[in-house]
UniProtKB/TrEMBL annotation:
<protein>
    <recommendedName>
        <fullName>FAD linked oxidase N-terminal domain-containing protein</fullName>
    </recommendedName>
</protein>
<dbReference type="InterPro" id="IPR050416">
    <property type="entry name" value="FAD-linked_Oxidoreductase"/>
</dbReference>
<dbReference type="InterPro" id="IPR036318">
    <property type="entry name" value="FAD-bd_PCMH-like_sf"/>
</dbReference>
<dbReference type="InterPro" id="IPR006094">
    <property type="entry name" value="Oxid_FAD_bind_N"/>
</dbReference>
<keyword id="KW-0560">Oxidoreductase</keyword>
<dbReference type="GO" id="GO:0016491">
    <property type="term" value="F:oxidoreductase activity"/>
</dbReference>
<comment type="similarity">
    <text>Belongs to the oxygen-dependent FAD-linked oxidoreductase family.</text>
</comment>
<feature type="domain" description="FAD linked oxidase N-terminal">
    <location>
        <begin position="2"/>
        <end position="89"/>
    </location>
</feature>
<dbReference type="GO" id="GO:0050660">
    <property type="term" value="F:flavin adenine dinucleotide binding"/>
</dbReference>
<keyword id="KW-0285">Flavoprotein</keyword>
<keyword id="KW-0274">FAD</keyword>
<dbReference type="InterPro" id="IPR016169">
    <property type="entry name" value="FAD-bd_PCMH_sub2"/>
</dbReference>
<dbReference type="Pfam" id="PF01565">
    <property type="entry name" value="FAD_binding_4"/>
</dbReference>
Length: 255
């Protein structure tokens, strides 16, 4: 049985604008919009349709995590209804971002990956500094298209939502690793060449040690790479091929 709780989507911001009570069924789209109206922001999933609570309680990886912490770091209290129907007490601000989208020439996948990884890395709230770093990013390969602009977080999430398909078949896998070795780059380039079709992709995020201790029970507080392998297909018949592609990539990287 599946219970749809998306109607539990309220957002009540405190008078001091430091905390907010939110409904357990709220999705990123509604949360980002409600906070944005008040000139507030917090780490969320980059895709607008992702449920906030499930995202945060699985760690909460976000493009804003390096600067503001993981999603789980943001939770200061919670109440939930358990399987017996009992209410259980589980207690134990930025207006816009500078974002950039870059498309690199990648006829030679290995060369493109190696060139990018060799020169990559830095988030900053200073837009001038951000633009300087984006210029360095453009120089990491043969950039055939770039889009750099200021954006509200809610609009950013809506735009990233367009990258996701609906009515797809399959699943996603994840893998963490400390370093991008030449062998790792070779494997990523290999599987970049063999993406099975629309609906499948892999994404990588770098999470930096914030440089200070965060009081959290969830503490991957070191520099590491997080790889998400999305193995889905627009057609049911392609789901098995997509999943095998992802499984092979995961196994080869793990070895």
């Amino acid at each position: 049985m599946t219970i749809d709780i998306r109607d539990i989507n309220y957002v009540n911001i405190s008078e001091v604008r430091k905390t907010a009570h939110i409904g357990g069924g709220i999705i990123t789209r509604e949360l980002a919009k409600a906070l944005g109206v008040q000139g507030l922001i917090r780490p969320t999933a980059p895709n607008a349709s992702v449920g906030y609570v499930s995202w945060a309680t699985l760690g909460g990886y976000s493009p804003l995590s390096t600067k503001y912490g993981l999603g789980v770091d943001q939770i200061i209290g919670a109440k939930y209804v358990n399987a017996k129907g009992a209410l259980v007490d589980a207690v134990y601000s930025l207006k816009e971002i500078l974002e950039g989208t870059f498309v690199f020439e990648s006829t030679n996948k290995h060369a493109a990956w190696a060139s990018f990884i060799d020169g990559y890395n830095k988030p900053t709230a200073n837009h001038d500094e951000g633009r300087r770093w984006m210029a360095k990013t453009v120089a990491l390969g043969t950039c055939v298209r770039e889009v750099i602009k200021t954006n509200s977080w809610s609009t950013y999430c809506e735009e990233k939502e367009k990258l996701a398909g609906y009515g797809v078949y399959g699943r996603a896998r994840t893998l963490n690793f400390k370093d991008l070795t030449p062998k790792t780059v070779e494997i990523l380039a290999k599987y970049n060449e063999s993406v099975p079709g629309p609906g499948s992709i892999f994404l990588m995020k770098f999470h930096r040690d914030p440089g200070h201790y965060l009081d959290s029970m969830f503490s991957p507080r070191c520099d590491y790479y997080w790889l998400e392998i999305i193995a889905t297909s627009l057609e049911e018949a392609g789901a098995e091929v997509a999943d095998q592609w992802a499984l092979n990539l995961q196994r080869e990287l793990a070895d």
